[in-house]
Amino acid sequence: MTIANVSVRADGTSVLVTIAGEIDIDNADDVEQQVLQAIDNRMTGVRLDLTYLDYMDSSGLRILFNLASRLKVLQIDLDVVAPPGTPTRRVLELAGFDAF
Amino acid sequence: MASPARVNVSERLRRIESITDAALAHLDFEELLEELLDRICELLDVETSAVLLLDDSAQLLVPTATRGLEDEIRQGIRIPVGKGFAGRIAAQRQPVILERVDRTTVVNPILIEKGIRTLLGVPLLAGRSLLGVLHVGSRSGRKFFDEDVKLLQLAAERVALATHVRLAEMERATTEALQRSLVPTRLPALPGLDLAARYVPGEGNGVGGDWYDLFVLPSGWPCLVIGDVVGHGLRAAVVMGRLRSALRAYALEGADPATVLTRLDRKVLHFEPGAMATVLYAMFEPGLERLHVSSAGHLPPVLATPGGEAAKLLELPIDPPLGVRLGQGRRTTTIAMPAGAVLCCYTDGLVERRGGNIDNGLRRLCAVVQARPAEDVCAAVMSAMVGSNPTEDDAAILMVRRETSVELAPLELVLAAVPTSVREARVAARHWLATAGATPEDRNDLLIVLGEAVSNSVEHAYGPRGGEIHVRLEHAPPDVLVTVRDYGTWREPRGRGRGNGTTLIRACSDEADIEHGPSGTVVRCRRHLTGQDAR
């Protein structure tokens, strides 16, 4: 069982979602549900912190791409935090997520 | 009917011989009980006979063998000590004759249902301890006399002797089976770690509460445990089994070793009052370079590093054993584990000898532990510390050696094409890549390559019946070669946002080849490890 911890801190109209652990095809759907539940349509901004994510592959990217396109429609800003040197940063860069 | 008490001398002898018959000794326990109960029914001219054995911890009498009262066993009747007819015999440890059988004198309704009118019962005793009750019943209301009591007591001695032997055998066999199932001699394969272990029962006390355990957490941290429950026999082994699973459960919660042992201590104090145990719990980082250790009263492991320096006891604060209620904080220490180093964990049975000094034992152990293959060191330790001189107490050893990149064998995995296999492959590869000397960046990229290739096979290769995925990682300095193979039929990815996988595989390797054929898909990748040269 692949384990990811999704923690949510809402502050008025913005929300901080932190994902720690690992994401692969085993738990991706579950993680996606938890992330989507953290966001309601009154929000104006979502900050997704992936600093403490030890592993993420294309199943994680799928969550991010889906989320980004949904939020664009809803006119909610998405800010993904993945500092240089983290495993997630590398995957995001390789997949061209920063250019999305 | 002639009074059965009036019997001549030769008849009496015949009866005694019938019960003490040496031929009975060849029967196994169940057969012996049945044969004796048959003979007793015939000799005493009664219709029912029953052996009830005492369940000591519950203070209940359990019907175990019977003639004429089979329903007692079928219905799982239990008689509390002190209650009713059999309960009274057990409580008083005296023969009891009952000449009126009704609800006021017996608690077991089956005796009434069977129309029994008189009963005679005697206790089964081994020395001063009560093993159970033997009783006979008569539907015709036959009276019981002194001679009947004596004859039944003679039979009871025979049953008690057999029961005593049987219980001792069962306890030993059960303890051994429990030990064997909980402390396996075959250890799990952990890439990057070379493992060996021994367990030997004590000469004097037999199997006890020593154990070791090895497992990998979902996060990929390999963990090792060695412990010793104070005491011997079944009780110690049962407590050991409980501690072993409780520790695994707390470990799964992902806490550090000191916290896991603190929680385990709380569990022991609440659920196993009176039990005491020493435990050492260590977690390896996924890269295997360091381990985090906490000791609850357990002797420090011996660490031998390559390079000829003498092996030393780990410098480790030792916190109190579990179960002693000393409210102080437990501590976790971080230890560096260089490639090629050997860690020897053991229980006190290995180093303690009657009349010997434990420091001498520890010195001898340090002298024999070396940074060599785990199985060799284990054999050397057993030879030096035990030899042909069996230990008094049981003893366990768990030897762990960090492999070096030179000797690293290719990692070969056969996985089921299911989502959980992606993590399984990643955990094994993480340890293997660390041992191969891959930098964190190389490791992360190769984990992506592997994860994507395995995910592809899981998602696209097989129908709902599933199939196998074969993974191979080979270290051919300066490269790591990754091969992931399935035997299914490829179908194009479905759904939105799929297809990043192949891009990532190519981006994270120096060379990648993905081949879809009629007999399956093979992904082959090569990645140059940073800072490594060709050998």
List keywords for this structure.
heterodimer; A: 100 residues; alpha/beta; five-stranded mixed sheet; 3 helices; 5 strands; 35% helix; globular; B: 535 residues; alpha+beta; six-stranded antiparallel sheet; six-stranded mixed sheet; 14 helices; 36% helix
Description:
The complex is a heterodimer of chains A (100) and B (535). With 100 residues, chain A is α/β, with parallel strands linked by helices. Chain A is built from 3 helices and 5 strands; from the N terminus they run E-E-H-E-E-H-E-H. Chain A has helices at 28-37, 58-74, 87-94; strands spanning 4-11, 14-23, 45-49, 53-56, 77-81. In chain A, strands 1, 2, 3, 4 and 5 form a 5-stranded mixed beta sheet that branches. In chain A, helix 1 runs parallel beside helix 2 (58-74). The radius of gyration of chain A is 13 Å and the shape is globular. Chain A starts with a strand and ends in a 6-residue tail after the last helix. By secondary structure, chain B is an alpha+beta fold. Chain B has 14 helices and 22 strands. Chain B has helices at 9-20, 29-44, 70-74, 84-92, 109-113, 146-182, 233-252, 257-271, 348-351, 358-368, 374-385, 420-436, 440-460, 500-507; strands spanning 48-55, 60-67, 79-80, 96-98, 118-126, 129-138, 193-200, 208-216, 222-232, 277-284, 290-296, 302-304, 312-313, 318-319, 333-336, 342-346, 395-402, 411-416, 468-476, 479-486, 511-517, 520-528. The longest helix of chain B is centred in the N-terminal third of the chain and has 37 residues, at 146-182. The interface between A and B is medium-sized, with 22 and 26 residues.
